[in-house]
Design a protein that fits this description.
383 residues; alpha+beta; 2 domains; 6-stranded mixed sheet; 5-stranded antiparallel sheet; 23% helix; globular; Protein ENHANCED DISEASE RESISTANCE 2 C-terminal domain-containing protein; EDR2-like; EDR2_C
């Protein structure tokens, strides 16, 4: 059982924790840093979940927090633990020259951006996993099993109401069903490269949120989903908090020749959502594109003039309507309005909710749909 407040941890672990681009700080005060939040803030399936549907505080992690990297590169960052120049690998190779290294996990969130940012959380197993255990099955199993089991719990601890509402409280998803994941498994490590931009929904939300990243505090927890009574209660593998990250503080990273770069194609329809995300970011966070916060998306609203922002964003919604659906919004008197064509933006007062239901592009084998709620501010709100 991992105790992340252990004061007797080895020197090599303390060194890895302290050498990242952003510092390890206390959870309650970690500006432009990372921390290890308490496991009890996350709710997981309890011991009788399949009967009672009750979730319980998660308790301590199964793995020990090892480090955090906030890095960027000229290409998408992947398979970092295969790179002999990776800082974690170098410490482990020096500390355990005869082998017998502890097992390391890495969760690499590849953010959709021109700068190819990655937020990577590392964890280490303090005890060998039991043969046949859920962790053992996950490590030795195929990608199908992993995609159906690996879960993410996300919580916006602090941030603009807009972002907190878009993400929701304790948002939970099975990552492999929502995003493209690549699993890199070595003798003493397992790395999950999570392409956030592979989901049209996640891509749009990240583009929206990235403009506020310097004011966001986010908790992320990873766990293997329990699907039978014998596997309950669920346990968190590891969790981390990042707070008020500054894009400029990200370290530049270039893979060595020993590491294999990965390229990914853009899913159908993603350019539309990139445009939509850019439009929201520019409307809600003027100047974000000029600052490079969402530099990879097309310039939907490339001007600082509020009237032009509103008109350009209206055009984006018009295009979205014709392609996907009609639009609903809540007016100033909290009435739900549904129209076959988006109304004039002069009718929108202060905060408006737009909802669209689109075909689920994540799974071509299903005719499922999902809802995406997005929020905009009327131009008068900026005056």
């Amino acid at each position: 059982m991992a105790k992340h407040d252990d004061n007797d941890e080895p020197e090599w672990i303390r060194r890895i924790k302290s050498e990242g681009a952003v510092p390890l700080l206390e959870p309650d005060n970690c500006p432009n840093g990372w921390a290890s939040p308490s496991g009890d803030i996350f709710k997981v399936r309890g011991p009788e979940y399949f009967t009672t549907k009750l979730k319980v505080p998660a308790g301590e992690y199964l793995l020990k927090p090892l480090g955090f990297d906030w890095i960027k590169s000229s290409s998408k960052i992947s398979e970092v633990l295969k790179d002999p120049n990776n800082r974690i690998r170098k410490v482990l190779d020096n500390e355990f020259p005869e082998g017998n290294q502890p097992f390391v996990w890495a969760f690499n969130l590849q953010l959709p951006s021109k700068e190819n940012y990655s937020a990577i959380a590392y964890f280490v197993a303090t005890e060998p996993c039991l043969e046949g255990s859920l962790i053992d099955q996950f490590i030795k199993g195929g990608d199908g099993l992993r995609n159906s089991r690996l879960k993410l719990i996300a919580n916006i601890v602090k941030g603009p109401w807009l972002v907190r509402t878009a993400v929701g409280e304790q948002a939970i998803c099975v990552i492999g069903r929502a995003l493209s994941c690549k699993y890199c498994v070595g003798e003493k490590f397992l790395e999950v490269d999570i392409d956030v931009g592979s989901s049209v929904v996640a891509n749009a939300i990240v583009h929206l949120a990235f403009g506020y990243i310097t004011s966001l505090t986010v908790d992320l927890a990873f766990l293997i989903e329990s699907q039978t009574d014998a596997e309950l209660p669920e346990r968190i593998l590891g969790a981390f908090r990042f707070s008020e990250l500054n894009p400029d503080s990200a370290q530049s990273f270039e893979a060595s020749s020993a590491a294999i770069p990965i390229t990914s194609s853009t899913p159908p329809g993603i350019s539309f959502w990139k445009s939509l995300g850019q439009g929201f970011t520019n409307l809600l966070h003027p100047g974000a594109s000029e600052a490079g916060a969402v530099a990879d998306a097309p310039q939907v609203n490339g001007t600082s003039d509020h009237a032009d922002n509103v008109e350009n964003t209206k055009s984006t919604f018009d295009a979205g309507h014709r392609r996907f659906c009609s639009i609903e919004w809540v007016n100033a008197t909290n009435e739900l309005i549904r129209v076959d064509e988006p109304g004039s933006f002069e009718d929108f007062k202060h905060i408006i909710m737009l909802r669209t239901v689109v075909n689920d592009l994540r799974d071509c084998n299903k005719d499922s749909t999902f809802s995406l709620s997005l929020f905009v501010l009327h131009a008068d709100s900026f005056s």
